[in-house]
């Protein structure tokens, strides 16, 4: 697996992925070019600190991982801090597999594992990665578990999709060799 930053030329592909029922259910994002440009353009142009990574398998795009330092988004950090301690420098991820025929093949697990491993190099001061996930999204939290993250908290967070309740799980993986990481 490889990845590169999402570019504006990728917005039509991202729009098609956001329209897929398995993605739309959990991402609940408008799919017009204007809204995708508005919401993903600043990161693609380097105007925002988050990283939107277009993930490839054998040179074909298969998914998207959003990665950011929680301290760059204070309101989000404060919300997660209601569930568990958020160490300085902690990172978070969000992710999707674009096409239905890629689901159930272990790509999500590989994608998360790859990006987490790279996070330790790309962000040398990051002590951990914290990932909140809707308790109702069993496929997503199972991918996190298979990728080596462990559930550290449960509680209420604002859902991405208003049809969901506020119940969320918080998953964590620590930098290998860090105190308390168990590695």
TrEMBL record:
UniProt KW keywords: Acyltransferase, Antibiotic resistance, Transferase
Signal peptide: none
Class of this enzyme: transferase
GO BP terms, alphabetized: response to antibiotic
Domain N-acetyltransferase: 1-176
PROSITE patterns listed in its UniProt record: GNAT (PS51186)
A matching Pfam family: Acetyltransf_8
Name used for this protein in its record: Aminoglycoside 6'-N-acetyltransferase
Species: Streptomyces candidus
Lineage: Bacteria, Bacillati, Actinomycetota, Actinomycetes, Kitasatosporales
């Amino acid at each position: 697996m490889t990845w590169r930053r999402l570019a504006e030329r990728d917005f039509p592909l991202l729009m098609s992925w956001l329209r897929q029922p398995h993605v739309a259910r959990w991402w609940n994002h408008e799919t017009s070019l204007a809204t995708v440009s508005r919401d993903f353009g600043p990161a693609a142009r380097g105007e925002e600190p988050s990283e939107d990574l277009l993930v490839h398998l054998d040179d074909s795009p298969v998914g998207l991982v959003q990665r950011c330092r929680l301290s760059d988004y204070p309101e989000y950090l404060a919300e997660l801090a209601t569930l568990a301690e958020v160490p300085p420098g902690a990172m978070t991820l969000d992710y999707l597999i674009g096409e239905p025929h890629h689901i159930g093949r272990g790509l999500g697990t590989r994608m998360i594992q790859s990006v987490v491993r790279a996070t330790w190099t790309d962000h040398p001061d990051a002590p951990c990665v914290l990932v909140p996930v809707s308790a109702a999204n069993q496929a997503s939290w199972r991918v996190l578990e298979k990728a080596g993250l462990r559930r550290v908290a449960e509680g209420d967070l604002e859902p991405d999709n208003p049809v969901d309740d506020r119940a969320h799980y918080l998953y964590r993986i620590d930098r290998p060799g860090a105190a308390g990481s168990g590695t």
